[in-house]
């Protein structure tokens, strides 16, 4: 390789990245005076590139009804896998208009649309915060069924959490998923 090829490749890649960033910024409404994010810093551009925040990704989020509040939100959504598919799944499970930080909390605690749907069937008024709380304390269908077998019927979510924390039922009554925070 001659000495001139490496800088040309770098320059071409950089121009390509900045072209994609320009398209992304147009999508974001940067500098449009209508709630755009303003001019992103070089760090913002690098973070978007590194995390794979593309114009298609932003369009998908917007099409799913999510209006990111900042470049930082977009990067966080990408890091924690807040996708248009996840948003659609949560809507199908009965959870509309979830605030951005709660979307991230759902993903961090592995609250899936399937889990949300299952909980919502038993607790129709469950909140997003309660879903996270249930996941943190490893409360699933098996735990709820075990509680019912022990005569704990019609428990609120708060009572389920208290039951889990108390250790009254013991872990043998409610199998936890392997790797869910347990020592191996």
How would you briefly describe this protein structure?
With 184 residues, this protein is an all-alpha fold.
Question: Layout of helices and strands, plus pairs?
Answer:
Layout: H1 5-28, H2 42-51, H3 55-63, H4 71-79, H5 84-92, H6 100-108, H7 113-122, H8 128-136, H9 141-149, H10 157-166
Helix pairs in contact: 2-4, 5-7
Number of helical runs? Answer: 10
Q: If you average the pLDDT, what whole number results?
A: 81
- Please trace the helix and strand order, writing H or E for each element: HHHHHHHHHH
Number of strands: 0
> How far apart are the first and last residues' alpha carbons, in Å?
50 Å
- Indicate the radius of gyration in whole angstroms: 22 Å
Main sheet characteristics: none
Structural class computed from helices and strand pairing: mainly alpha
Q: Give the overall form.
A: elongated
- Helix percentage: 55-70%
What is the beta-strand fraction? under 5%
**Unreliable sequence segments:** 30-35, 174-184
List the defining traits of the structure above.
mainly alpha; 10 helices; disordered C terminus
Characterise the protein shown here.
With 184 residues, the chain is mostly helical. It has a domain at 12-30 and 39-79. The protein is 59% helix and 0% strand. The chain has 10 helices and no strands. The protein is elongated. The termini are far apart. Residues 30-35 and 174-184 have low confidence and may be disordered.
